[in-house]
Amino acid sequence: MAVPSTRAEFKEYCLRSLGKPVIEINVDDDQVDDRIDQALRFYYDYHFDGSEKVYYKHEITANTIANSYIDMPENIIGVVQLFPIGSTVTNSGDIFNIRYQIALNDLYTLTNVSLIPYYMTMEHLALVQELLVGRTPIRYNRHRNKLHLDMDMSKLVIGEYLIVEAYEVVDPATYTDVWADRWLQHYTAQLIKRQWGSNLTKFEGLQLPGGVTFNGTKIYDDADTEIKRLEDEMINQYSIPPMDLIG
Prior knowledge:
This protein is of the alpha+beta class. 42% of the residues lie in helices and 15% in strands. It has 2 domains: 7-50 and 173-238, no CATH class; 52-169, no CATH class. The chain contains 7 helices and 6 strands; from the N terminus they run ααβαββααβββαα. It is elongated.
């Protein structure tokens, strides 16, 4: 059987893993779509392949200065930092640049000069930059899609660019390999199975011709146990260690 590469193929793959068409899966199509969306949201939030680091470029306009925020795309789930605005202690843009002066006077040959003093100097300058200049305070909420800049907006120049380090989801509609992820397939199938069990509990104990009775509780409990195991597996094996993130 081919590896699923679209949402429709992924849906059928998960249903087949539960027994379709040999067994009738008592779940509505809309319920299946809801469970797929639920699985994707969990995948985006915790799996190291569910999102990726990007550098988002925003051109400064009059509205940017007036609003004191940047409108971010819907697929951005978190912001790490805003790159320094304007000149810094270590980058003045001319021959008085500290990096240029060190390279000119001390690193004219790399055969007999240790790089340790250079490294320590740059670390010290980074500390000076952090203490005397600091970073632009930012606030971001993924549900509002607005990156607020808590700074003097008059420092911004219309036409220049702001660079934001952020994380965006890996959209399976564009990157179809997402549908082939083993964990996502198994997790989605178990969410659908739990929905199936929940639906059948409404008919618990109902006897069909031949003496067969519905046992939705067993299906629900089995799926719920497996879902909890898969979520623990995600946190312990597939998640990136916690880090600073706004959103």
